[in-house]
Amino acid sequence: MAPYEQFPNNKKIIFVGKMGTGKSSLTNMLVQGDLYTQNIREVSDSAASVTSEVKVVDGRNWTACDTVGLGEMQGKSNESADPAMRLLVRVLEEGQRGFHYIAYVIKQDRLQTKEHYELFELFKATFQGAEDNFILVVTHCPNPKWVTNNREIITQTFGNIPVVTCDFPFDADDISYRRQERLDSLPKFEAQLAALPRSPIVLKLSFKETATVVVQQKFTNSLEEFLRVGKSIVELVLSVLIPFLNVYSW
């Protein structure tokens, strides 16, 4: 496959997100144009297939970085909030590639989870300084109106970043199944990206600083929750005791 420098209109995108959200399928569709029995990046129609490495691949007019799913790797070090993100940072620092799009990927039916909020906080801290290139990619989403219908919770969880949708139906046992739908959906996906022109950003990341920011934020959130609950308990106790204090007061 030709190196990305040979494509004059080459766009570069990195996919980050949990296991089973479709990062590898997105990578294959952009660089190959379709999904096959043997792909550049292994894909599965279940969440059992786990990407265990970070790899940048080139094809068509795209350079795509497929990453280890957040939360997939169990680490023993306390330096990092997520070993998968630490691995990603190392690969990006070694490659020094610029990316037009830094995509956090979710699956349509997995939107309403607290875990997404926490992982996206880690995502933002890790890619601090590249916020202008952030996008949210929603996979397994054949109807773009889904974004409008779920705008409130999307904003609450991810803020006001651009949202791009796609649906690349795939059956590992029958790759021809709904193939035309896949082929039709690809240009629609690319058109949404083209409508969001971005200049490439070379990511300069430090995971130790990132981990510290995230840990501090989680501590702050926990403390605020503790104080809120504590205040409620105190108010409840006082509401019970005050009538007795009034009765027995001199």
Automatic annotation (TrEMBL):
In its UniProt record, a GO molecular function of this protein is: GTP binding
- A Pfam family recorded for this sequence: AIG1
Which stretches make up the AIG1-type G domain?
12-140
Q: Which SUPFAM superfamilies match?
A: P-loop containing nucleoside triphosphate hydrolases
Q: Identify the stretch annotated as signal peptide in this record.
A: none
UniProt keyword list? Nucleotide-binding
Name of protein: AIG1-type G domain-containing protein
Species of the source: Linnemannia hyalina
Q: What is the lineage of its organism?
A: Eukaryota, Fungi, Fungi incertae sedis, Mucoromycota, Mortierellomycotina
